[in-house]
Write a structure and sequence with these properties.
The chain is mainly beta. It is 12% helix and 42% strand. The protein is built from four helices and 24 strands.
Amino acid sequence: MRAILTVLLLAALPVRAEVVAVRPFVTVDDAVVRLGDLFDNPGTRGATVLGPAPAPGGRLVVEAAQLAAIARANGIAWRPMAGTERAVLERPGRVLGREEMLLALRAALRGQGLHEAAELDLLPFAAPMVPERAFVQVTVEGAVLDGAGARFTASIAVMAEGAPTQRLRVAGRVVTMVPMLVAARRMAPGEVVRPQDVRLVRVPASRLRPGAAQAEEGVVGQALRRPAAPDQPLLLADLAAPAAVERGQTVTMIYEVPGMVLTAQGRAMDAAGRGATVPVMNLATRAVVEASVIAPGRVRVGGVR
């Protein structure tokens, strides 16, 4: 009998219920707000959908009165004690990158004759927010390239998991890009340009400096007339053939007369490259003559100066 009474007494004791508390700060990754986002220990109804979540990058504040109403409607044993309780729901988001849109735009405009080397310059627009970790698909629903191929307009649909489709209009201009050769390091006058000393970049055609080199041909192997700074455009006018003779250098002077070749020692009065004319003083006669540089340290003599 005593055992039976003990069992009955234990059965009559109240079962301690789980304490329900409001979650003051919540990060929502879904497109909807659920009961479990607002309350700890909501029981079996934690997955109940209450409504849409904030937009990506946005927040939603649920005050005490609304929390109490939600609790009553869903059988949750909670009510405000101070009247200042609230839940702040935030949904992570990111701004859709311009490159993501440009990739889709280029693909759509390519069929209308957009040049592969051209760049698209978007006019300012309000970039849409999308869920932080959602898969995003950008679709160009309409794109028009003007007759001159200089401007474009387009309608874009942005579809992301957990967010409604967003549509926007964009516009911009087509920028023709051209190659330009720039210095890869600081170089001094007289240095001979090597392949590793230059770098090819693409710039808008409007920014191409007149006379700027656009390819390595005609630059590599040439000597600088002026110093060059890193990323400075290389001008063809600032390049010359490397000096085959230096100022003050002793050179071999070659005189060619019918049936005879004579040589003498001379001193170059200036620096000059192969094929250039340079004044040379004959060390034996002290006469200064014009000579043509034919090889490093060798000149062919012309007339007397």
